[in-house]
C-alpha cells in the first residue's frame, strides 16, 4: 500500500520565549520534526511543561516559530492574516475544557455557528450546524439548538466543542487533552467519536496528552516529548509495548496495569531555559544513575553529546545513546 501523503509537518521547529529577569531564553520547542499523514491520528505525549501545547500552538499558526517551519499540504505556512484565516478553516483546535471554551451566554446553535460567521459562510447555516451536531453525536440536533452550556453534561459540552470544529469541515483537528476534564465513563465515548470521525470523514488528528493509556486507545503513532524535543516515536503498539527511551519507560511504568515497580524520576523538573549539555534527560535518567549506561560504554556520551534530532519518518526512532548502543550491540 502507498503511504498517505503528509498533511501537516514541523521541520526543525524551534519556539523560544524571553527568559525571566533577563536570563537565558526558554527553549519551549527545540528542534522538532513531526509529520501527520492524511487520515492518521498521532498522539503527542509527555509531562506537563515539556512543550506539547507550545508545539500544538505553533502547528496551528498561533505561535510563530523562532526557527524552522510548519508546512501544510507541502506548502510553508503563510503568516499573513488572510492566509492564517484560510488555514484555520482547514485545521481546527479542540480544547480540553469545554466549560471554558463555550460562552455561557451563547446557545449551542450560536456556539457551533460562530465559525461559519467568522468565515462568512454562504450556504445554509442551519443545515450546516445541524449536520455538525449530528456528526458529533448530538441527535436529533434541533433538540440542542436553544440549550445553554450549563444545561448540558460534560460529555455533551465536549461534543458541542467538537461540532464547532467540524462545522467548517476541516481536514485535521488538534485536540489538546480532549478528555482530561471528563468523567471516566464519558472518556470512552469521546475517544470512540474521534475514531469514528477519522473513519467516516477521513479526518486527521494530533491528540496532545499526558495520558499514555489514551494514546494507546486512539493513536496510530505516538511521539514522546521531553524538554522541547521528541525523544521517541513510532507506531503506538511498538512504542508502548517495547519502549526504548528511559523516559518513555518511566512514563509507562506508572500506569495501573504496568508490570513491576513504578520508575520514580529523580532530580528537578525540566527547565526549558536551562537545558543540560549532552542528552537533555541525563540529569534524571535512571539508566545513567544505575550504572547501566556506564556498563554499555555510553555514560560520557550521555553527559556531553546531544542525540540527533529525530526525523519526521514513520519508522520507529529513539534519541538515546544507551538505547542505540543496545541495538548496535
Automatic annotation (TrEMBL):
Pfam families: ABC_tran (PF00005), oligo_HPY (PF08352). One of its GO terms (molecular function) is ATP hydrolysis activity. GO terms for biological process: peptide transport; transmembrane transport. InterPro entries: AAA+_ATPase, ABC_transp_ATP-bind, ABC_transporter-like_ATP-bd, ABC_transporter-like_CS, Oligopep_ABC_C, P-loop_NTPase. The keyword Nucleotide-binding applies. Keywords: ATP-binding, Nucleotide-binding, Transport. The keyword NAD does not apply. NCBIfam families: oligo_HPY. Belongs to the ABC transporter superfamily. This is Peptide ABC transporter ATPase. The lineage of its organism: Bacteria, Bacillati, Actinomycetota, Actinomycetes, Kitasatosporales.
Amino acid at each position: 500500500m502507498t503511504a498517505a501523503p503528509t498533511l501537516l509537518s514541523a521541520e526543525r521547529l524551534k519556539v523560544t520565549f524571553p527568559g525571566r529577569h533577563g536570563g537565558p531564553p526558554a527553549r519551549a520547542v527545540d528542534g522538532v520534526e513531526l509529520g501527520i499523514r492524511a487520515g492518521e491520528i498521532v498522539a503527542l505525549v509527555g509531562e506537563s511543561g515539556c512543550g506539547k501545547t507550545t508545539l500544538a500552538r505553533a502547528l496551528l499558526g498561533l505561535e510563530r516559530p523562532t526557527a524552522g517551519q510548519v508546512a501544510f499540504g507541502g506548502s510553508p505556512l503563510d503568516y499573513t492574516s488572510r492566509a492564517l484565516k484560510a488555514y484555520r478553516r482547514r485545521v481546527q483546535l479542540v480544547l480540553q475544557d469545554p466549560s471554558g471554551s463555550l460562552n455561557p451566554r451563547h446557545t449551542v446553535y450560536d456556539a457551533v455557528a460562530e465559525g461559519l460567521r467568522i468565515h462568512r459562510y454562504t450556504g445554509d447555516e442551519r443545515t450546516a450546524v445541524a449536520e455538525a451536531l449530528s456528526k458529533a453525536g448530538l441527535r436529533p440536533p434541533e433538540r440542542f439548538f436553544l440549550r445553554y452550556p450549563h444545561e448540558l453534561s460534560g460529555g455533551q459540552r465536549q461534543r458541542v466543542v467538537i461540532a464547532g470544529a467540524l462545522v467548517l469541515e476541516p481536514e485535521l483537528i488538534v485536540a489538546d487533552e480532549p478528555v482530561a476534564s471528563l468523567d471516566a465513563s464519558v472518556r470512552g465515548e469521546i475517544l470512540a467519536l474521534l475514531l469514528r470521525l477519522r473513519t467516516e470523514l477521513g479526518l486527521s488528528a494530533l491528540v496532545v496528552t499526558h495520558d499514555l493509556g489514551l494514546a494507546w486507545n486512539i493513536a496510530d503513532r505516538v511521539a514522546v516529548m521531553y524538554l522541547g524535543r521528541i525523544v521517541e516515536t513510532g507506531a503506538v503498539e511498538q512504542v508502548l509495548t517495547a519502549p526504548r527511551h528511559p523516559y518513555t519507560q518511566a512514563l509507562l511504568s506508572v500506569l495501573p496495569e504496568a508490570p513491576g515497580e513504578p520508575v520514580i524520576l529523580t532530580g528537578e523538573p525540566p527547565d526549558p531555559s536551562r537545558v543540560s549539555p549532552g542528552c537533555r534527560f541525563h540529569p534524571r535518567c535512571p539508566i545513567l544513575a544505575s550504572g547501566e549506561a556506564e556498563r554499555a560504554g555510553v555514560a560520557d556520551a550521555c553527559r556531553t553529546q546531544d542525540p540527533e534530532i529525530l526525523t519526521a519518518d514513520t519508522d520507529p526512532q529513539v534519541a538515546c545513546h544507551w538505547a542505540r548502543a543496545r541495538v548496535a550491540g
